[in-house]
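Design request, tokens follow.
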């Protein structure tokens, strides 16, 4: 059983810790996205890019991809994801929002780097989602899941920025989910096919509200806060899936 791990060149450098863990727990080789030949031989593929077409090409050859292309496509298009959640009865902060202030998000942005708070009205710009801000700015929740199972939850907070992303300097603490929150997470989980994801929530009027799905979810803050080796758990899951598939 041999697989390939796909990262972009930049993300492979930034996630060297994770790359080494995948190599430790699986018979796998790193292939950079920029050098990837989708006709290459592999028993399975771990796609750690935001490009769903990579997964599609391997899936068409009957090769198992973690995560599937359908999830990667949904997770990396905020407009598509919000429409999907609304259609399936999951509460989100209103989109196509013309009020002020508003949160302006690049449709394919990640890590909070293409998210802006705007205080003056502007025409809707193609490629962006305009969303009503939540009541608790600078505070959000990240939940990690593997195949329908909640692994951990972390509260992220920032006093300096409305974005609470850990990579932007926000603080993080372990979070105990309520039964109501677990039920919401379960409802979302049941709507999508995935292997390993993060689901992010904002806080609004005392409850969590869906914000986005993280496909190639990172785990640096989880390793810094807990003794959970989530990549090991993911690799164990992959091994079972490939052997039994």
């Amino acid at each position: 059983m041999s697989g390939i791990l796909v990262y972009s060149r930049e993300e492979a450098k930034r996630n060297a810790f994770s790359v080494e863990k995948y190599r430790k727990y699986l018979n796998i080789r790193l292939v950079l996205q920029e050098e990837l030949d989708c006709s290459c031989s592999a028993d399975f593929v771990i796609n750690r890019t935001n490009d769903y077409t990579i997964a599609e090409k391997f899936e068409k050859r009957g090769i198992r991809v973690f995560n599937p292309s359908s999830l990667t496509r949904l997770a990396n298009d905020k407009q598509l994801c919000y429409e999907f959640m609304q259609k399936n009865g999951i509460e989100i902060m209103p989109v196509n929002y013309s009020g002020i202030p508003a949160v302006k998000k690049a449709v394919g942005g990640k890590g909070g780097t293409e998210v802006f708070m705007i205080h003056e009205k502007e025409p809707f710009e193609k490629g962006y989602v305009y969303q009503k801000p939540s009541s608790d700015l600078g505070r959000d929740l990240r939940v990690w899941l593997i195949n329908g199972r909640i692994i951990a939850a972390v509260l992220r907070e920032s006093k300096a920025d409305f974005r609470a992303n850990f990579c932007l300097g926000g603080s993080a603490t372990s979070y105990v989910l309520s039964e109501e929150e677990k039920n919401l997470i379960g409802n979302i989980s049941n709507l999508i096919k995935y292997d390993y994801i993060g689901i992010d929530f904002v806080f609004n009027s005392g409850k969590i509200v869906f914000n986005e799905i993280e496909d190639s979810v990172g785990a640096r803050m989880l390793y810094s806060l807990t003794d959970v080796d989530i990549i090991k758990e993911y690799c164990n899951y992959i091994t079972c899936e490939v052997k039994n598939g």
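Comment from the thread starter after seeing the answer: thanks! The longest strand covers residues 149-157.
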